[in-house]
Design goal:
CATH topology: TIM Barrel
Largest sheet: 5 strands, mixed
CATH class: Alpha Beta
Strand content: 15-25%
Radius of gyration: 18 Å
Bound molecules: zinc ion
Number of domains: 1
Length: 290
Amino acid sequence: MWIEVPLSKPVQWPEGVRLPIIISVHHQSEEAAVVFGDGQPDPFDYSERQYGGRRGAWRLLEILGKHDVLGTWIICGATVEKYPQISQAVKKAGHAIAGHTYEHEMMCNYPPDQELGLIRKTVSVFEDRLGERLTGWRTCFASHHTIDLLLEHFDFEWDASIWNDDLPYMIEGHGKTLLEIPFSSYSDAAFAIQITNPMPPTPYGTWHSNTPEFIFRTMKAQFDALYERGADKPVLMPLTVHDFIVGRPSRSLVLDQFIAYAKQFPGVVFTTHDQVRAWWLQNYQERDRA
Ligand SMILES: [Zn+2]
């Protein structure tokens, strides 16, 4: 069991920070490919997603480097095993790193003991292959047990799997605390449904691609709304980019242009989940876990 810790005072970022933007790069390569009834992955979807591991992630790393901004790379355990050079380059560049399940399992479909096993497996891949102790976690498909498992069995400092708020909140349970830093698909650069497309729409398929202009407008609208609100209220912009989608040339150009646009505004800071947690603790001066 866990509870949300009530706020003792308003959320406040450090002096000069008006709108923190956290770019989460979902580096998941081919892990979430659609599986047919015979257990084999759909070859089309598989190769489409494999692009992320082979090319897309490298391009995203380049763009973040070009703008000299850091983000959080949210990586599947199996992706670290299959494409270790990218994770090593990400780490070397100073980005924050978090776990994204082992093979992008939909945790909501697993009983707690299996979910626990999958989190453990992912944690040890990062330790063994990357020398990285995971402090952050995101599953796109949290179960009702995810938060309890993270608190009870591990030393995670933050989770970013929940979609239910604009701002972080502290969770306490099993004698530990965890900062929940929610995310949102409204600022997801993968947002790709084209209503007029005759194929069944999926939000994360490049083959249902909206135009780059549409994607840019969606991100800009979210940014503009938050920036205006940020004049006198706390705001945070999660920006999700998937390696196999936003890593494609035309989409990565949109990310490139969006970062350039946002950077013009005073008080916009590109940051990481780890940094946001540090700001949170600073503001509330909560005791950290030993
Ligand atoms: Zn994902």
